[in-house]
Amino acid sequence: MTKVLILGANGATAKIVIDRLLNETADDLTLYLRNAKRLSQYENNDRVTIIDGDATDVNAMTAAMTDIDIIYSNLGGTALATYTKALIAAMTAAKVSRLIFYSALGALHEVPGKFGEWNEQAIGAYLPGFRESDRILNDHNEINTTQIRPAWLTNQDEIAYETTEANEPFKGTEVSRQSVADFIVKLIKAPALYPNDSIGLNKPNTDGDQPAWM
């Protein structure tokens, strides 16, 4: 049995991961988010602990990490680098070393061509936080981090994806949340996969200048 802490647990992808872990594993889950009432559907599950907390509160996050084996960070927003610094401080204090980190395409300047140019404009306000977070995580190799860089997310009920490495150009323009959740669940089930790595995720054969549904 693995003890998993999910930060930003009310996110759409995080909730898919939560349900899959509860259905497919015996893992115990600690769900950390602002306004814990948003996950009240899990209150009576004896494998779930829900914590109402702020991602900048190092002491609260450190306490939440007690006896935790693996952390999945679903945090985001323009303040992501601030959250990442607090996360690293808490993990260091709690002596937790395995992290799955939800990043974004473009975090490594890896998206080529016109789609890369479009992506820079579309999420330009957020990319500095992802890029600074990448630098912070790479400065802390004592924490084994797998960063995930998904393409633009869809709500398609499908699992269909391929991966690219950090040193490869990004492929495709979109991927389903179900696919991203599937990759995260695989990492939680087999945490030795992709150590200290950054992995791009996309649906095959979705290349273009922007997502087809835009």
List keywords for this structure.
214 residues; alpha/beta; Rossmann fold; eight-stranded mixed beta sheet; two-stranded parallel ribbon; 10 strands; 22% strand
Tell me the number of structural domains.
Answer: 1
Strand content: 15-25%
What coarse outline follows from CA principal-axis ratios? globular
CATH class: Alpha Beta
Radius of gyration: 16 Å
InterPro entries: NAD(P)-bd_dom (IPR016040), NAD(P)-bd_dom_sf (IPR036291), Polyketide_Oxido-like (IPR051606)
Organism: Secundilactobacillus similis DSM 23365 = JCM 2765
Protein name: Oxidoreductase
Domain NAD(P)-binding: 8-191
Describe what this molecule looks like in 3D.
There is one protein chain. By secondary structure, this protein is α/β, with parallel strands linked by helices. It has 6 helices and 10 strands. It has helices at residues 12-24, 58-64, 80-94, 113-122, 127-138, 177-189, and strands at 3-7, 28-33, 48-52, 70-73, 98-102, 144-150, 152-154, 162-164, 174-176, 197-202. The strands form 2 sheets. It has an 8-stranded mixed β-sheet, with helices on one face. The relative contact order is 0.15.
